[in-house]
């Protein structure tokens, strides 16, 4: 049953096939929502929120993941405006809005008056992909992390997150939850690092993955080791490992102002395929 005049309603398990077909129109850009749908089967108790769908003539035309992260899926400006109208009826429960630039901008313009001032907005974030062998030699010392690495890995993850987001993941008593997330990625084989004499000097993780694509997060090198080529060789190793064992396409998105990171990814062979935007609370 449609719940608004714009044809928006929460999706359920019976909509999974239609949602996967929708996400499959651009399976790399939509990897996060695709992954969430596959792992939760669109059950709200597992989603920790809802997946909204917008229908036209009985066909699913766009969607919107609404959990801790709000992520439009294949949403035009009109779709994003319809999702914003629905979002205003429930108030803000999300900590981040992220997705393709136009959809995020239109959505934010629709909810800004009612959702309060964001902590930060990032309107130009190149979305990058690689589906070939890396263009630089992979670092042979990059490997999957294990529990024995936690003493070095966890502080590096906290440092990366704080540097990138501007807020510690341990703030407000979040240390246990964040440590659990780091451990979860490690247990899945999605955490990679290089160590020199026991010290972590490069790391990266797979944030989410489907049979089509994997999205990388948390790329980090300690400040005193930057400029040595560790990031390029390390990312090349991650690309090689992930493409061989996780998914055929590797993606990520990066802040436009982060010239060193963008240069590193270009050197490895990543190419821009879309523009993302992020609103953080």
From TrEMBL:
Keyword Transferase listed: yes
Q: Pfam families of this UniProt entry? A: Acetyltransf_1 (PF00583), DUF4081 (PF13312)
Q: Which UniProt keywords apply?
A: Transferase
Named from the GO MF annotations, one term is: acyltransferase activity, transferring groups other than amino-acyl groups
Q: Which InterPro entries match?
A: Acyl_CoA_acyltransferase (IPR016181), DUF4081 (IPR025289), GNAT_dom (IPR000182), UCP21603_acetyltransf (IPR016794)
Q: Where is the N-acetyltransferase domain?
A: 140-281
Q: What is this protein called?
A: GNAT family N-acetyltransferase
Q: What is the organism of origin for this protein? A: Nocardioides luti
């Amino acid at each position: 049953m449609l719940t608004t005049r714009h044809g928006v309603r929460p999706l359920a398990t019976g909509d999974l096939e239609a949602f996967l077909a929708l996400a499959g129109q651009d399976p790399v850009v939509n990897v996060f929502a695709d992954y969430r749908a596959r792992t939760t089967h669109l059950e709200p108790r597992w989603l920790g929120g809802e997946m909204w769908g917008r229908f036209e003539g009985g066909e699913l035309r766009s969607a919107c993941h609404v959990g801790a992260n709000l992520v439009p899926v294949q949403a035009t400006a009109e779709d994003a405006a319809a999702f914003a109208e629905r979002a205003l009826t429930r108030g803000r429960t999300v900590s981040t809005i992220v997705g393709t630039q136009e959809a995020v901008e239109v959505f934010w313009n629709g909810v800004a008056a009612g959702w309060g001032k964001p902590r930060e907005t990032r309107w130009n974030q190149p979305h990058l992909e690689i589906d070939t062998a890396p263009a630089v030699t992979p670092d042979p010392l990059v490997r999957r992390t294990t529990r024995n690495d936690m003493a070095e890995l966890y502080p590096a993850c906290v440092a990366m997150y704080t540097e990138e987001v501007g807020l510690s993941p341990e703030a407000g008593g979040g240390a246990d939850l964040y440590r659990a997330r780091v451990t979860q990625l490690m247990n899945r084989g999605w955490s990679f690092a290089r160590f020199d004499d026991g010290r972590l000097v490069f790391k990266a993780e797979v944030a989410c993955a489907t049979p089509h694509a994997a999205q990388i997060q948390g790329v980090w090198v300690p400040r005193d080791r930057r400029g040595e080529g560790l990031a390029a060789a390390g990312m090349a190793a991650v690309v090689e490992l992930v493409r061989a064992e996780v998914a055929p396409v590797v993606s990520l998105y990066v802040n436009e102002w982060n010239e060193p990171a963008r240069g590193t990814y270009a050197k490895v062979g990543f190419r821009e395929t879309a523009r993302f935007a992020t609103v953080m609370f």
